[in-house]
Known about the structure:
The structure is a single chain. Helices cover about 70% and strands about 5% of the residues. Helix 1 packs antiparallel against helix 2 (about 40-55), helix 1 runs parallel beside helix 3 (about 60-75) and helix 6 (about 115-130) packs antiparallel against helix 7. By secondary structure, it is mainly alpha-helical. The chain contains 22 helices and five strands.
Amino acid sequence: xxxxxxxxxxxxxxxxLDYSSNCDTKIPECKKLARxxxxxxxxDQLLVLEKLARTGADMISTxxxxxxxxxxxxxAKDWAALNEHIILLTKRxxxxxxxxxxxxxxxxxxxxxxxxxxxxxxxxxxxxxVTEGKIYxxxxxxxxxxxxxxxxxxxxxxxxxxxxxxxLQVETYGSMSRLExxxxxxxxxxxxxxxxxxxxxxxxxxxxxxxxxxDENDKEEAQTLKLKYYDLMMELAxxxxxxxxxxxxxxxxxxxxxxxxxxxxxxTALSRAVLYLVLAPHEPEQAxxxxxxxxxKLLDEIPTYKELLRLFVNPELIKWSGLCEIYEKDLxxxxxxxxxxxxxxxxxxxxxxxxxxHNIRIMAKYYTKITxxxxxxxxxxxxxxxxxxxxxxxxxxVINARTDRPTGVVRFTGTQEPAALLDAWAASLSxxxxxxxxxxxxxxxxxxxxxxxx
Length: 454
């Protein structure tokens, strides 16, 4: 007995037969039969042919038959039969993966053809069910999940939309393009922010490597995703009060061609970077970023903000009333210090605190001793508030100072470098050991004299 040509698949012998001629004849006949009202007769005949093509490992014919079955259900507008046959066809024994993929892709185009929202959701859920756990249709499942999340969000159910999207582990999908991965991860971030799940947003944000945006910076779609990413990161940073991060994000936005080529958007991002940098607490990283931003030639295009930033670098006291007189009108016009928002009012208070902190740091450079009353006069603050600001800077390690409260005197001490501190400790230890050796020698001498006299 001579067998037809065959191939090995998972250790089983499968016959390779060509049923294309059968499909050419049978599919049109069944479609005609369905139009005459004999839907299930047509489907039964195609299911018989599908079994033959599937067992004969004829992937092309199997795909044609699967697509023909769902097309017939769609034309008949029998949505129950459509969902039923999608599940039936994917569960059939040894069903061909490529045929399933083709059918799912075809059915995905039917979503927009559904008559109402309920039918649409039912079809999406059916397709999500049959694609669950199947790597070869992971991309299709991700797109379907995104569609379902959009529907839930339009209904106002943000929590359910976020829960649906978070089912996807998009970063593990090898067959999905990097741009699409980034787009879906950003959707996960957006929905988490919408339901105010800020901790999960931070976790998801780490799945995106910003180097990807640099590699794809010449593509318009990548630039759009980059701006969306930094908008979401800035929303998160604003909620957490991370001013230094906000400065970094705005500087990253400046590197995007669509922003750098638009003077208005460029100046907006640059001014935000300056203002958030000024609001950031003083630390080595903040000081370094301040000097690097001042060296940026782009800052010459917005001289007002450059002069504002320079105030916090110059070793001179900043008079708050003078700063308000020169800059308040311009700063209040920005969204950062807008008087119409609670966040804007809070940032204005933070700006005054930064001015006070700057002035105290400058005093620490020029004074070794000063009264709290005189310091309060220079800062234009009450004595109690001056002392509170001073204590905060000492606690955070920005300056070293001691306050004699009975006399109301503040003594500033210079900060020592770690190497100098270690040298001083070593010298003190050496002096201590010398004293111990000398004491031991004197004790031993007295013991010897006592023995000699006895």
